[in-house]
Amino acid sequence: MKVTEKISQFIVNASLDEMPVGAMKTAKQAMMDCLGCTLLGAVQPIGRIISEFVIDADARPVASIVGHGKKTAPYLAALANGIMAHAEDYDDVSLGIYGHPSPPLLPAILALGEQYRVSGRRVIEAYITGFEVGSCLGRAINPAHYKRGWHGTATLGTMEAVAASAKLLELDASQTRMALGIAASEVCGIRQNFGTMTKPFHSGNAAKSGVVAAQLAQRGFTADLNIIEAPLGFGHLFQGDEPPDWGKVAHLGKTFEITTEGIAFKPYPSCAETHADIEAILDLMRKHNFPHEDVEGIECVFSDTMDSVMLHLEPKTGMEGKFSAEYCTARALLDKNVGLHDFTDERVNQYEVKKVMQKIRRRIDPGMAMLASTLNIKLKGGCQFSQHVEVPKGWPKNPLSEEELVAKYRDCSRLVLSSSDIDRSVELLKNLEELADITELMNILVKLAASRTH
Amino acid sequence: MKVTEKISQFIVNASLDEMPVGAMKTAKQAMMDCLGCTLLGAVQPIGRIISEFVIDADARPVASIVGHGKKTAPYLAALANGIMAHAEDYDDVSLGIYGHPSPPLLPAILALGEQYRVSGRRVIEAYITGFEVGSCLGRAINPAHYKRGWHGTATLGTMEAVAASAKLLELDASQTRMALGIAASEVCGIRQNFGTMTKPFHSGNAAKSGVVAAQLAQRGFTADLNIIEAPLGFGHLFQGDEPPDWGKVAHLGKTFEITTEGIAFKPYPSCAETHADIEAILDLMRKHNFPHEDVEGIECVFSDTMDSVMLHLEPKTGMEGKFSAEYCTARALLDKNVGLHDFTDERVNQYEVKKVMQKIRRRIDPGMAMLASTLNIKLKGGCQFSQHVEVPKGWPKNPLSEEELVAKYRDCSRLVLSSSDIDRSVELLKNLEELADITELMNILVKLAASRTH
Fold first, then answer.
1. Are residues A307 and A406 located together in one domain of the fold?
2. Omega of the bond leading into B143 within 30 degrees of 0 (cis)
3. Contact B184/A190, CB-based, under 8 Å?
4. Could you tell me which residues come within 8 angstroms of residue B126 by beta carbon, excluding any fewer than 6 positions away?
5. Which residue of B has its CA nearest to A227?
6. What tens digit of pLDDT does each residue of A92-120 get?
7. B144 and B288 together in one domain
8. Minimal Cα–Cα distance from A214 to chain B, Å?
9. Quick one: A306 and A221 in the same domain?
10. Please, what is the end-to-end C-alpha distance for chain A in angstroms?
């Protein structure tokens, strides 16, 4: 099968008019969620480091750095915004790429979209195009690709970003193939860096790489025309233990993964794999109303993949805490909630939480579904309860409501935007397909975070 | 073995005072060779595309874009200069990284070196430090890494570049480990792109990635501290069919690969794997003095690795011609020489050369040494000759003389620099260790190519 050629044709021919209505709805939700996370990331330490790094280049002001009051070159804006979007690991998730679809994708689109003053319709069209390309490639190489140690947000994210960038730049079929070829030589992102700033760096770097590849192809840069399926190409190098299943690409443009599988939005700002445990403990406490002091032991049962994602059994930093079943479960038990303020170094190293964490054990059950967890709890005096969560809140089969998504956006953006700017941006994002030019939206998002003005 | 920690300590402690004199001599030769290739690349189409792309960002003028009269951010200068250095595939080669050591390494050093106005001694020190780190990692994962399809110039080049950048920025041991961790998540470059502009993109992207990783670590960015040897880290993900041999890292700082194995400099501007065939045919014609019209058939015998590098049996572009045993051998037969002007689309598609190429066949002998070739030639009338080349000219065991290296630099740089600038830059490069500040050198190299001024 001529995979690269087929993907390029899909990108060139993709038209919002022919995409399902449900695709547009989910894409718009994902964009609002991603921008909320980006605004939140803007005021985190990593957001400050990367924006200062990018601003230091003092490049021609073309594309906005969200929450930092400055514009820069599109690929540098994509880098900074892509990192901020994933800074708190509160951003969306999809199973096609085994990772976060929007942080590599949307920043690339907005950076080029701002440069060319495109419409909301074209932003949505590019988003769905990029999402579908990343997802079908993900289906072809995952889960083996992820299990080997690659971070889909970075690797498949680069392919999403280049597909969307090629679409926005209106590259022709040959240029689009070149862009895919260049991007394939920029793909990286390794899971060993989970729990450090380099994890969010992955999505920003992917966004940047997609923009660069498309812009170079536009300028006449060349690459292998069959990079996806060629003997030493993308598929071969990034497969896991099994060869890619190119049949997954055949559906491209016929069915849309964004409607068939959807996108998950997180209610908790921690690794998606911690959510089932958080929910299970909250459910149990609601049902049985026991004080945390009475807990003797907790067993979390999940799959080996879940286990390998939650790298940190004894986290020392806020970042590591996000990838710790032990910390997230203990925090939920202690506070009956897990929120943004819980992932600081100080909170993770609190004496009280560390004591609770010592009561928690993992057990691996390879037969468990991805994301599912069974929590077995034993109380002093002998009481035992068990709670199974198959699909955590936020996943398409158990979705957040539109109101919950807007509330999350408001909560994430309040350290940067005024309440009138929040209202206006919600309005613009809800009606994005009617926006003739995204400049107004970008002019709100670029505003300097209130917490950074003094 | 604590590989990442050991490498970081080597980087932090490396001192030119304790390096072998031979290391400095070879490093200086490599730098002159690389800068000649960069000046040559500046006037090629790819050099024009990438410099215009970088200049378009209009970033704060800190680091020079060679041959283009402009300065930019260090990472953008590293990108452009790294691409130009590898544009013509005329640049140096080393077997540790199974690729080109200088194009990812030197541009990173010069970009940061110019920013901080460092001395020639510190440039040499950083060069050798980066080279040794890339080489020992290469020895640990090659040849399996390369055989799988990774391009060492890009992958190991990124690690060279980050090591040298960390050294130049005087990062401490912890920051250096972070920088290695960030860089590992930027490693890519796939051989399928050989024969296209994306091959030279690899070295520029590696140089850029190294600079970015070191600069982010300097600003407090975090990454996994044991990225090289950790279960899902660099070694695991970039190995080939065999696990890495970390024992190769044990020699770091005790012996120097740059003196034990050296660096090869190319006398022909084509893939190193084509050189044995070029030399064999030139030798045979010198010895037997036959006209090319008398040739009935030519058989080139080399290893399977050589075969897989020379991707293009029927090249259609000048770039592809560089990776074609058939074209290079036919060109040598026709012209008794292979030079810079031979790698244009027009020359590769010449009717006369295509006729000769039809007489050439490959035969694979897995037992042959890397780089070696046996050429069997049959003339009309029945005469048969054979010529074996084990080590082509330019390799440390059959080196170019200092005069030949200077002549190559002069030939490469003459489209950019005036003869007085060539003279002065040769003088500065020959005595690099005495230069208190590299600014004068960079101010020559940045000059706008004469061929671009009108």
1. no
2. yes
3. yes
4. B109, B113, B164, B165, B167, B168
5. B192
6. 999 999 999 999 999 999 999 999 999 99
7. no
8. 12
9. no
10. 58
C-beta atoms of B57 and A53 within 8 A? no
Closest CA to B132 of B30, B267, B237, B242: B30
Structural tokens at position A299: 């067993």
| Number of Cβ within a 10 Å radius of residue A437 | 14
* Interface touch B59/A73, C-beta < 8 Å: yes
- Per-residue pLDDT tens digits for A204-260: 999 999 999 999 999 999 999 999 999 999 999 999 988 999 999 999 999 999 999
Cβ atoms of residues B55 and B70 within 8 Å: yes
The upper half-sphere exposure of residue B123, i.e. CA atoms within 13 Å in the direction of its Cβ, equals 35
CA of residue A110 relative to chain centroid, distance: 16
With CB atoms and an 8 Å threshold, state whether A198 touches B224: yes
User: Which of B60, B149, B227 lies nearest to residue A232, judging by beta carbons?
Assistant: B149
Q: What digits encode the pLDDT tens for the residues B384-405?
A: 999 999 999 999 999 999 999 9
| Amino acid at the residue A430 | K
Check whether residue B321 and residue B370 sit in a common domain. Answer: yes
pLDDT band at residue A283, thresholds of 50, 70 and 90? very high
Residue A449: per-residue pLDDT: 84
Contact predicate A34/A92, CB 8 Å: yes
Residue A451: pLDDT above 70?
no
Structural domains of chain A, count: 2
* Nearest residue, CB atoms, B193 vs list A46, A223, A236: A223
The CATH number given to whatever domain includes residue A382 is 3.30.1330.120
Contact A375, A359 (CB under 8 A): no
Same domain flag for B282 and B220: no
Give me the helices (H) in A374-454, please.
Answer: 402-413, 419-430, 439-445
Q: Taking CB atoms and an 8 Å limit, are A233 and B192 in contact across chains? A: yes
User: In this complex, do A185 and B201 lie within 8 Å of one another by their Cβ atoms?
Assistant: yes
Q: Which of A366, A389, A412 is at the close of a domain?
A: A389
- Distant-in-sequence, close-in-space partners of A280: CB < 8 Å, separation ≥ 6: A373, A374, A375, A387, A388, A389
Q: Which domain holds residue A290?
A: 272-389
Confidence of residue A29 (pLDDT cuts 50, 70, 90): very high
- Which residue bears the tokens 């037997």? B288
Q: Which pair of structure tokens corresponds to residue B162? A: 């980050």
A-B contacts at Cβ under 8 angstroms = 166
Tens of pLDDT, residue by residue over A351-383, are 999 999 999 999 999 999 989 999 999 999 999
Output the six-digit token pair for B313. Answer: 């049996």
DSSP string, B332-401: HHHHS---GGG-SHHHHT-HHHHHHHTTEEEEE-TTSPTT-EEEEEEETTS-EEEEEESS-TTSTTSPPP
Domain final position from A340, A370, A389 = A389
Please give the helix or strand (H or E) that residue A356 lies within, else none: helix A351-357
**Which of B150, B192, B233 is nearest residue A190 as measured by Cβ atoms?**
B233
Of B58, B187, B193, the CB nearest to A181: B193
Q: Are residue B355 and residue B238 in the same domain, yes or no?
A: no
Chain B residues within 8 A of A202 when measuring between CB atoms = 185
Per-residue confidence (pLDDT) for residue B454, from 0 to 100: 39
Q: How many Å separate Cα A141 from the centre of its chain?
A: 19
Asked if A178 and A78 sit in the same domain, the reply is yes
Instruction: Give residue B103's pLDDT.
Output: 98
- Residues of chain B in contact with residue A216, where contact means CB-CB under 8 angstroms, are 49-50, 53, 201
Of residues B72, B216, B237, nearest to A149 (C-beta): B237
Which residues in chain B touch residue A215, judged by CB atoms under 8 angstroms apart? 53
The token pair at B406 is 């200077």
ipTM: 0.93
Q: Which chain B residues have a beta carbon less than 8 Å from that of A230? A: 192
List, in sequence order, every residue forming a beta bridge with A299; answer none if it has no partner: A361, A376
pLDDT in the model for residue A452: 57
Q: Which residues of A touch B76 (CB under 8 A)?
A: 57
